[in-house]
Amino acid sequence: MANGRDARVRAGSNTKHCRAVLAAALLALAPSSGAIELSGHLAFEPRGFTQSPAHPGQSRHGLSLAVQPELHHAFDDGRQSLLFTPFLRLDTADDGRTHFDVRELLYQRVFEASELRIGIGRVFWGVTESRHLVDVVNQTDLVENVDREDKLGQPLVNLTLIRDWGTLDFFVLPGFRERTFPGREGRLRSEPFVDTDRATYESGAGRQRIDHAVRWSHAIGDFDVGVAYFHGTSREPRLRPLPVCADGRPALTSGCRPAGAVLAPRYDVVHRTSLDLQATRDAMLWKLEALHESGQGGSYLAWVAGFEYTWFGIDESGTDLGLLVEHLFDGRGGNAPQPLENDVFAGVRLALNDEAGTDFLAGVIADVEGDATTLSLEASRRIGERWKVELEARAWIGVEGGDPMFPLHRDDYVQLTLSRFF
């Protein structure tokens, strides 16, 4: 079982890897003519929890520092480009959250009616607010945020064909990325905690399996539509309890008396067909993300459907007020590896449209079949040309034992992020 020392060793190894990748990227960029553009941000992030921790070793407060530079170089009159975006976070409260990742390391070539991307990249699919159900190319970086918005870089070869009848994207995805999870001493974790060292795969190739995806997208009148097919290792693992000995060895194979348990990720091979659809009717946006997936976890349907209505210019300053409502459904019910199997999301978005770009998003997700409710608040504002401050708060109320969200019932938190852009 991984301990704090193992995590620190991995962090040191990641730092060395970061230097090696950065050096290789700079060498690749250096021979080409033209300037290298450097941008990015450095973020300081204090986080505080409103209740004492539920598990030994956990902290009520934490600080972290994140840096994400971006090096971009275009040449051949802009037809070719190189992009390098590394990411590093150092966290005082959770060794599992201290990690390094290459978000992007891409070569891109633009042709007359097509584009080619090769390397490590990020791809986003989806239209809904509460959950990006169809977004399947990249793995979730769960230690970054419980909202699952942050993604790990994915090795890929992506060919895009741009035609009058739509855009067709082909993906070859070599090399699987495992989902990140908080460590034993981290907050916002499951109970038992997820031991990523126990990950298993349906495919005999494990992480080396090559996945494939294809997506067609097009704008037809008021409708923006995307249809995709993915065949490969599921980005969402099933978490299976594994009894362990006092020294961390698996009890089932070691013959010892179980002294506890961990959750072991199991990654199945799946076939997934998905649809994302958005209809724009004046101030109303109708949204749908739906999928059918089959694999070792069974066959099921899932969707997120709803709308967003915006009142533009509600005052003399030009403030916009938006109302969002969505229904989330997962046909696996209580067997789903995530808690949103029959829930309703309602939110309010407020954009002041001022020079500082001030905006707010407040939302609630309520379980249709129970009392569990998640409250969230996000706000951001620029300070001058180089700084940005963001506020994030989440709380879980009415969560009882046996509910998938019960491990979070003591993890209500408030987080402030101060970013410096360069």
What does this protein structure show overall?
The chain has 422 residues and is mainly beta. The protein is built from two helices and 21 strands. The chain has a single domain, classed as Porin, CATH 2.40.160. The strands form two sheets. It has an 18-stranded antiparallel beta barrel. A three-stranded mixed β-sheet has the order 8-12-11, with no helix packed on it. The two termini are 40 Å apart.
Write the layout of secondary structure elements.
Blueprint: H1 4-29, E1 37-49, E2 61-75, E3 80-91, E4 99-110, E5 114-121, E6 154-163, E7 166-174, E8 200-201, E9 210-220, E10 223-233, E11 238-244, H2 251-254, E12 260-267, E13 269-281, E14 284-295, E15 298-311, E16 320-330, E17 342-351, E18 359-367, E19 373-383, E20 387-397, E21 413-421
Parallel strand pairs: 8-12
Antiparallel strand pairs: 1-2, 1-21, 2-3, 3-4, 4-5, 5-6, 6-7, 7-9, 9-10, 10-13, 11-12, 13-14, 14-15, 15-16, 16-17, 17-18, 18-19, 19-20, 20-21
